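Batch manifest, entry 17 of 40.
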Amino acid sequence: MKPLPAVCSIPLRSVFTCCLGLLMTSAATAEPGHDADPYLWLEDVGGEKPLAWVRERNAESVAAVGHGEAFGERERRLLAILDSKAKIPYVSKIGGQFYNFWRDASHPKGLWRRTTLAEYRKQEPVWETVLDLDALAAAEQENWVWHGATVLEPEGRLCLVSLSRGGADADVVREFDLSTSAFVSGGFTLPEAKSRVAWRGRESLFVATDVGPGSLTTSGYPRTVREWTRGTPLAEAPVVYEGRPDDMVVSAWRDLTPGFERDFVIRQKTFYTNELFVRRDGQLVKLDKPDDANASAHREWLLIELRSDWTVGERVFAAGSLLAADFDRFLAGDRTLHVLFAPTLRTSLIAFSGTRNRILLTTLDSVRSRVTAASFRDGAWHFEPVAGVPEIGTASVAPVDEYESDEFFLITADPVEPTTLALGTAAEPAGEPERLKRSPAFFKAEGMKVSQHEAVSADGTRVPYFQIGPTDLPLDGSTPTLLYGYGGFEIPLVPAYDPLTGAAWLERGRVYVVANIRGGGEFGPTWHQAALKAHRPRAYEDFAAVAEDLIRRKITSPRRLGIKGGSNGGLLVGHMYVRRPELFGAVVCQVPLLDMRRFNALLAGASWMGEYGDPDVPEEWAFIRGFSPYHLVERGRTYPPILITTSTRDDRVHPAHARKMTARLREFGLPVLYYENIDGGHGGAADNRQKAFMDALAYAFLERELAR
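Output type: structure tokens
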């Protein structure tokens, strides 16, 4: 499968160079009828005054909840889990070997290593180190964070290694030779940028990167693609495609499947619309598809994933469907389309991938994972369920080698059963996959259960949620409960095994709840679109309905109910904080969007206007203001205690969102703690030690506010 390149990254389905200082010179935009923002100075990410302010806030938070014996014990417990040598070393096949990136106490930045499948089957495989990131960082005096490698397939010898300073989205790209385990002297290199780079062949790349003024979109991503030949200056590489300044990003790649080599260029106009071109004889041929549909190629097949209904001839294909067509015939005008998946009211497509002779479909049925193998035989597609998928929990599949075999890795888990990695074959989907690895039980799950419930939202929509907690839970509202949500960008939340939450929260007799609110992808694009732009309040009404249902069922009470969310989920809990403060006893708001008046002017924010709207358009600001926590918080009103965290190196969601909200809450005399990790990017932590501290801080705060 050759999926579209990722253009953004948010927890569980991931999509998503801005120089951090460039946006600091923007003029203040005063809200009509209001004074100019008094905290614009906090948008200067690396400024001496803002960083002094950050250090003061960090010290206050550490003094409040980030010290003492109990905190140290919790932090050490979480770090031990993250550094455990018993956790599953997930692998991907390159050439004839299996590669893994690994962090532990001895290698905090990580090792890229490899082994054989026969060795991997052993309880303690023997690994060969390919790249020691700790040694590299020490030698170069850089805080390198691993961002992965792009391999020249199917040979599997050369790759492009991406390294980030401190965990930012922007990274440095260097050519690496797997046969010698060394960087290629004089090889392809790119300086720090939010680049999109792909192999076209051994001697050339497709490169979309920052090459100076005019080469980036307003979202801070590349808007030109070049074909760069080895040994020539990048500046002289011919431009293959140039997008518009207000596009989100453009990029290109080559499908290197033997016998099916094709060049593709994608113009990502907005977060949800794109144009896809195939390059033939030096010309770009636009694929005939809806702009809001995604398309990809797998061998002879063109695969089209719909986000809205599509009428082709006499047929109407529903939003959320996955269609297949013969690639060459489709380009020639044949519109014969096969339906690989069609949604129902409670089913949706989550992911798909190709093996040598099959398409693997991962779907949700009432937010429960299912996996199906599809094969084309005798002029029709046939579908068989894949064995080994849990009734409640998560399942994901990944081809072992899409060029040569039908084998796949199957990863399964549920909230109280540790993760399992198995090896199966799509040629025999009914056969029980071979278990290769199983994670240890990192917390005591005895006496816990997982149950699924539904709340009724303000407009009558039934909103599912998962509850994890004690079997003998007292129904008197006394149990500290943590409610988690996201509700955006068509990203589904499914009940997974979370050892950190288990050790820090569930093991103490608490309840953890995952809400499947609108805006997410639990029921496909229509579920997502129900909370877009002016409809965004539907997501917040859903979340409030789940909170109210927990209280109604006497699982917990407002004093004992905490909420947590990050990124778009940070916006969610920030909104609940200002709109429904009476429902909650504590709020943890992580790497959040909060100032929705200026989100589109900060870093990658312009790329999210398809989700939220454009605050520079008065008619749209009118509804956006209704979910901008920074503008909705009121002096003199009672709000629950809140912990806001972010990262200085987050070059996706600007740390000013968190900084300015904290400053405003302090101005109003409200109970707020703030912590800004210097490294970490949008993930909030650059290594296991930082993550253990940040998670311990959040749970110590929740413990203090909800369990006393």
